[in-house]
Design goal:
Length: about 240
């Protein structure tokens, strides 16, 4: 069974899926939902079908994520992946899916307006404004910022996320960096930074799960890099009305 985590503040059906409960093998074991790797497409399709069924959704829609600020309104008739990093909907039964492997999956809901959103927020996308753009897109569908709750799901945690000065300078806010192993390295609080970017909504909450630290539960791009390369799976996070 596809395993997923939830947060009580989100009243819409949702799941931050782990890597458990799928059919992929090797470095993709087991619930790999990424569409751009070298995993067997039939396995990926089965994994995504298991996640969709676990949520009770009529259909799962997702994107070709590019680490940018673009947001689109989800359409059940999509036959190809659009390039964007967030999607929104006011249609019941349609699961909005984001894939990650250290970046932050962020799920949004306005229960009064009946509007949901999902965003992929790596540091580039967060700096570019993808989270605020998701809120703006939800507002166009009738949501109000003060009613929106967002939950930042499993992502790489600050103690695990050592970066160089160029990333620190690109983010431009020293509050989200701690000292690293030497003067040239810093530890970045991605989840905290995402929550800060969402300070204008009703609530922005952090699930507080480190993808790098839990190899048995989560895929991690940084873990794969530290190991010298190899296959990289991606976990799914999804929300539906």
């Amino acid at each position: 069974m596809a395993e997923y985590l939830t947060h009580g503040a989100l009243t819409a059906r949702h799941g931050f899926f782990t890597r458990r409960g799928g059919v992929s093998g090797g470095g993709y074991a087991s619930l790999n939902c990424g569409l751009r790797g070298d995993d067997d497409p039939a396995n990926v399709a089965e994994n995504r079908a298991r996640a969709t069924a676990a949520l009770g959704a009529a259909r799962l829609v997702s994107l070709r994520q590019v680490h940018g600020p673009a947001v689109v309104e989800a359409e059940p008739e999509w036959t190809s992946l659009l390039e964007a990093d967030a999607l929104v909907t006011d249609r019941p039964g349609l699961a909005l899916g984001i894939i990650t492997a250290d970046c932050a999956p962020v799920l949004f809901h306005d229960p009064v307006a009946g509007v949901a959103g999902a965003a992929h927020a790596g540091w580039r996308g967060a700096v570019a404004g993808v989270l605020e753009a998701t809120v703006d897109a939800m507002v166009k569908l009738g949501a109000e910022p003060q009613r929106i709750t967002a939950v930042i799901g499993p992502c790489i945690a600050q103690p695990s996320y050592e970066v160089r000065a160029d990333l620190r300078d690109a983010v431009g806010d020293a509050r989200f960096f701690a000292p690293g192993r030497d003067a040239a390295h810093f530890q970045f609080d991605l989840a905290g930074y995402c929550a800060h970017r969402l300070s204008g909504i009703g609530a922005a909450l952090v699930l507080g799960v480190d993808t790098l630290a839990e190899e048995d539960r989560f895929f991690s791009h940084r873990r794969r890099t530290l190991a010298g390369g190899g296959p990289l799976g991606h976990q799914l996070s999804a929300i539906m009305l």
